[in-house]
Amino acid sequence: MQPWIIRDTGTIKYITLPGWEAEGVALAFSTRLGGVSQGIHESLNMGLHVEDQDELVLENRRRLAAVFDFNLDAVVCCQQVHGNQVAVVGEADRGRGAFRLGDEIPGCDALVTVQPGIFLLSFYADCVPLYLFDPLQRVVASAHCGWKGTMGRIGRHTIDMMNRQFGTRPESVWAFIGPGIGAPCFEINPDLAARVNAEFTGWHDIINRDRQDRYTWDLQETNARILQAAGVMSRNISICSLCTVCQPDLFFSYRREKGLTGRMAAVLGLQY
To answer: At CA 177, angle to CA 229 and CA 228, rounded to 5?
Structure first.
C-alpha cells in the first residue's frame, strides 16, 4: 500500500501518490481550493454541469492542468452516467469533454489509455474515484464509482478491459481509491442495504446497522474488495480515508450541500 499525500503548490492543494509519480504517472484528486469560482462553487470547481460560469470552470481546469504541464486539449472526459461501461481512448479522443458539455465519451464511467500525454479527467462530489495503473504494460485507467457503479462492479469491468486490450495481469495492477463519502456519512435505506448484501454475499461488514436501525455503507472498502476479487493484490491497493462530507474546508459534497455545490476532479495520465 503506497502512501498518499496532500501537495500544496502555494495556490492549489491536491492529493497524489509520490510512488506513482516516480513511475511517470500524473495523478491528482483536487480539493476545492485555488480556483476562481464564487458562491456555492467556491473556488476550484471543475464541473461544467453545475450552473457555474463556463469561463471560470475552464480557468480552474487550466490551473490544475498547469500543475502537470499539459493543456486542456490533452484531456479526455467520460459522460459519467452511473453505470459500469468502460471505454479505451487515445490520440483521436484528445479534448473530448474538456471544453464543453456534450462532447464527452458517451455512456461510460471509466476510461483506459496507454497513450502518454493523454490525461483522463473525471468529476466528483462524494462518489469514489478509482485510479488503476499497470506498471508492466504501462496502462492507466480511471473509474467513477458511485453506488450504482459499485453495485455494477465497475472496478472489475475496468480491470477486465485492461486485460483484454493490453494484456494487463490483475496481480500487477496498482490501485488507488481516492476520497469520497465515508462510511459513517453514507446512510442508505433498508431496501438498498438488502440489495447490497444480496449482491456482495458474505461481505456483510460493508454494511453497518446501528441501534437506531440506521444503515450505512462503506463504498471504499466495497470497491477494494471488488478489486481483490478481480485478482488485484491487497498490498497494491491504497485508500485515502478522507471523507468529502466531513471536510468542507477541502471538498465539495453533494450530500452535505443537498446538490448545490461544485465538483472536484480526478486526473490520471502517463507522462512518458
So the answer is: 10
Distance CA 110, CA 156 (A): 11
Angle, vertex CA 158, rays to CA 133 and CA 151, nearest 5: 125
Instruction: Report all structural domains of the chain as residue ranges with CATH numbers, in order of start.
Output: 5-181+236-270 (3.60.140.10)
What residue has cell string 471509466? 110
Give the mean pLDDT of 103-114.
Answer: 98
Residue 128 Rama label (left phi>0; alpha psi -120 to 50; beta): beta
User: Does residue 157 contact residue 84 with C-beta atoms inside 8 Å?
Assistant: yes
Q: Is 261 helix (H, G, I), strand (E, B) or coil?
A: coil
| Cell triple for 51 | 450552473
Could you tell me which residues are beta bridge partners of residue 145?
128
**DSSP classification of residue 71:** -
* Res 204: pLDDT: 84
- 264 C-beta neighbours (distance < 10 Å), count: 30
Is-contact 207 187, C-beta < 8 A? no
Distance CA 17, CA 149 (A): 24
Q: Tell me the pTM.
A: 0.98
Q: pLDDT tens for residues 213-239?
A: 999 999 999 999 999 999 999 999 999
Cell (9 digits) for 174: 496498482
For the chain, how big is the Rg over CA atoms in Å? Answer: 17
Q: What span, in angstroms and rounded, lies between the C-alpha atoms of 116 and 90?
A: 9
82 Ramachandran zone, left/alpha/beta (phi>0; psi -120 to 50): left
Tell me which residue of 107, 172, 108, 109 sits closest to 139, measured CA to CA.
172
